[in-house]
Amino acid sequence: MTLTDTSYGKKVEKKIKRLEHEVKQLSVALEALTALCESKGVKARFPEMEHTGLSNLFFTTPLESNTPTEAGAVKAGEFAGHKTLQVSASNDAHLILSTQVGLYMKAGRHISIHTPAMHVETSKLDIDGELAAKPAYTQAFTWRSGMAPVRLVHHRLGLPVLTRLESKQKNNSSLGAHLYIDERDGYWYLRGKSDEACQAVAEAVCFGRV
Fold this sequence. Notes:
The protein has 1 helix and 9 strands; from the N terminus they run αβββββββββ. It is an alpha+beta fold and 210 residues long. A 3-stranded antiparallel β-sheet has the order 1-2-3, with no helix packed on it. Strands 4-9-6 form a 3-stranded antiparallel β-sheet, with no helix packed on it. A 3-stranded antiparallel β-sheet has the order 5-8-7, with no helix packed on it. Strand 2 and strand 3 (82-89) form a beta hairpin.
């Protein structure tokens, strides 16, 4: 009776095969890491993990305790039927892309961002192309004949658009409206112009961070 004929022998063979597979995975990963560290320009290929179809490179937090926690991973392979490169953070970690020079993102078809809230803080925003979005706007501000100028929103928060201008008299050549910024407080104001005898109405709506 040989060792492989016993149930114990089969268990040993199974463990040996599993160890050989793990050693092979570690060897491939070590070669890829060595190539990256030495900047040889060799393409990194990490072993497939857990039959997901994706090769994984995991990152852990510093060893502050005996049990390091996973911070994120880089994955490459097939995902949803497409060749995919994923950079992800764990559920309790932030993913930060930071540079002192410039960050350039390019996609041949489209870039999709799905998030409950998005905040963009910049001194200047240039858009080369079509901008489509759900606008934020105020309710209509109304000025009528005899009223003082109506204050709208601060010029840093929005831009007013005249939406209505009319009077009860037809062919009123003096009818008009003026949108302007008061330098004293930085707010937009709406005021109208008309003959004293007619009843003029002007309305404006403000778009922006309102």
